[in-house]
């Protein structure tokens, strides 16, 4: 049984135009346009209340938008909801399996709901239990599962119908690092097999690990998008990190750069703990000029490196606030410290 029927000429597995969903004063979706190319993973990033789950609910036909259009796998969410439900998989932020049934029973039941014959439903359940390392717990009530086991079962459940498009709504929130890695490798395997994935997450690292492209949401709107490197480049250039051979020369080096007044370069800073001089760069020519100048002035350099902004920094730059998942180690004051404005919930 294959449900992966999509018109061959369609490049985008998901096409969203002008999507609007308001709850009273709250603009959960406030004019969203987005596209997911077939066979790719789109990461949807955003803080609490940004509208990520609302988007997933609209795209899975669970709620109707107030306005706008959405076409998934060639099917219109408003006009062809029943057909659409057969070609999508959904792993919700809130698990959707029945606690009283065993893992195996849950998967079997979902297979039957998708019209699989009994034997096929049993076989598919077994296959997925194995794939997600759940065979030992397969006979136990899901109520006794750990958080990670539930999440894996939920992921397995969303894949029973071999969906062409899979929505993963914060699939690893609350998982320990090992389980999170397991989920990541399953998602990668799915993407390799050609499944289109729309993944919402608050973890920058997760987006970086899994997504081909990114869309950043805030207050119901798309505020940035593109490839990860593209997004980083948009936010700001690289930082050149120079390690003087003699750590005592940090400040002299910063002084020399300030005095030289190289065009477009301002604000070299000394990082005493790291023993580095940081220089914000916008071009390769600037990099060459900085290194050249330091050479001319007789500075001995032990090492250089360039550093792209992290996704946390990207997020901060485009939303003007920290991502709610920004968990820096205590006492690490690195990075710009914009005032955190809570998002109206
Ligand atoms: N059924 C509803 N009734 C009223 N308001 C709602 C409803 N569903 C969502 N909202 C509001 O819409 C906004 C967007 O919510 P949504 O759940 O889509 O955010 P989210 O990006 O998924 O957040 P989180 O990261 O916390 O899961 C929030 O302000 C939320 O309170
Ligand atoms: Mg959500």
From TrEMBL:
Which organism is this entry from?
Streptomyces lycii
Print the keywords alphabetically.
Answer: Antibiotic resistance, ATP-binding, Cell membrane, Membrane, Nucleotide-binding, Translocase, Transport
Which protein family is it in?
A: Belongs to the ABC transporter superfamily. Drug exporter-1 (DrugE1) (TC 3.A.1.105) family.
Instruction: Name the SMART domains on file.
Output: AAA (SM00382)
**One Pfam family of this chain:** ABC_tran
Classify the source by domain of life: Bacteria
Q: Name one GO molecular function term.
A: ATP binding
Location in or out of the cell:
Cell membrane
Major location (coarse): membrane
Q: Where is this region: Disordered?
A: 324-345
Membrane topology term? Peripheral membrane protein
> Can you give the residue ranges of the ABC transporter domain?
14-244
SUPFAM superfamilies referenced in this protein's UniProt entry, alphabetically: P-loop containing nucleoside triphosphate hydrolases (SSF52540)
Q: What is this protein called?
A: ATP-binding cassette domain-containing protein
């Amino acid at each position: 049984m294959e449900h992966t029927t999509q018109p061959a000429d369609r490049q985008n597995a998901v096409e969203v135009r002008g999507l609007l969903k308001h709850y009273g004063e709250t603009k959960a979706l406030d004019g969203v346009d987005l596209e997911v190319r077939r066979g790719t993973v789109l990461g949807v990033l955003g803080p609490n209340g940004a509208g990520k789950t609302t988007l997933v609910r609209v795209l899975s036909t669970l709620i109707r938008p107030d306005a706008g259009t959405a076409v998934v796998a060639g099917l219109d969410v408003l006009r062809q909801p029943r057909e659409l439900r057969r070609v999508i998989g959904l792993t919700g932020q809130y698990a959707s399996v029945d606690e009283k049934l065993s893992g195996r029973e849950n998967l079997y039941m979902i297979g039957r709901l998708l019209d699989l014959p009994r034997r096929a439903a049993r076989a598919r359940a077994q296959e997925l239990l194995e794939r997600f390392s759940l065979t030992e717990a397969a006979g136990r009530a899901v109520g006794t599962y750990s958080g990670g086991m539930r999440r894996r079962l939920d992921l397995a459940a969303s894949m029973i119908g071999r969906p062409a498009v899979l929505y993963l709504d914060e699939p690893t929130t609350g998982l320990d690092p090992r389980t999170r890695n397991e989920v990541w490798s399953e998602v990668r395997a799915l993407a390799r097999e050609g499944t289109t994935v729309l993944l919402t997450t608050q973890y920058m690292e997760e987006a970086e690990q899994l997504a081909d492209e990114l869309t950043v949401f805030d207050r119901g709107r798309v505020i940035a998008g593109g490839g990860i490197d593209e997004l980083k480049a948009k936010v700001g250039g690289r930082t050149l990190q120079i390690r003087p051979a003699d750590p005592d020369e940090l400040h002299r080096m910063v002084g020399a750069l300030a005095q030289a007044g190289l065009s477009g370069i301002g604000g070299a800073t000394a990082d005493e703990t790291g023993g580095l001089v940081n220089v914000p760069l916008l071009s390769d020519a600037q990099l060459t000029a900085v290194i050249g100048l330091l050479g001319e002035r007789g500075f001995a350099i032990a090492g250089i490196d360039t550093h792209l902004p992290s996704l946390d920094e990207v997020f901060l730059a485009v939303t003007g606030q920290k991502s709610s998942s920004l968990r820096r180690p205590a006492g690490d004051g690195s990075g710009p410290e914009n005032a955190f404005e809570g998002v109206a919930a």
